[in-house]
């Protein structure tokens, strides 16, 4: 398994934060598996560990948000990658953010792009769950911002 993890670490992946509002709380996690699945209709997919708290919340609540982080947002990525169940509002303390009007989930400002989605299908895949979702809205796009990428277990800017 170690060789498999190392082999997959050779593949650069964009870094995103996925958030969901659950009652009075907000939950989120850093992911490197957000991807486009279809253009017509617009669908995205995110892969999450089956045992994660975010997975538990997304199985209860269909609407969520994803922010594609930009270079310079490494601290936000690291905060959301921390194990445990800290509130997303605490993790975003001092960082500009707002609530998505369609999902009520927190959206980090200053990223490369942000969208809101509604899960339409959940597919078990080994020790992960794949959440396939319809895109409800694109909150913003900032093509001038360089994306944050994870490669070889480190966050790296795209130059």
How is this structure best described in words?
- With 159 residues, the chain is of the alpha+beta class.
- The protein has one domain (13-143): Electron Transport, Fmn-binding Protein, Chain A (Pnp Oxidase, Chain A, Roll), CATH 2.30.110.10.
- The chain is built from four helices and twelve strands.
- The protein has helices at residues 2-8, 53-60, 74-80, 88-91, and strands spanning 13-14, 16-22, 25-31, 35-39, 42-49, 63-68, 97-99, 106-108, 113-125, 128-141, 148-151, 154-157.
- The longest helix has 8 residues, at 53-60.
- The model has no long low-confidence stretch (mean pLDDT 93).
- This is Flavin reductase family protein.
Characterize this entry briefly:
With 159 residues, the chain is of the alpha+beta class. It has 4 helices and 12 strands.
Secondary-structure arrangement, i.e. CATH architecture: Roll
CATH C-level name: Mainly Beta
Q: Please give the largest β-sheet.
A: 7 strands, antiparallel
In the CATH hierarchy, the third-tier topology is known as Pnp Oxidase, Chain A
What is the C-alpha radius of gyration, as a whole number of Å? 15 Å
Instruction: Give the rounded overall mean pLDDT.
Output: 93
Strand order of the largest sheet: 3-2-6-9-10-5-4
H-E order: HEEEEEHEHHEEEEEE
- Taking pLDDT < 50 over at least 5 consecutive residues as the criterion, the unreliable ranges are none
Pairing-aware structural class of the strands and helices?
Answer: alpha+beta
**Amino-to-carboxy terminus distance:** 31 Å
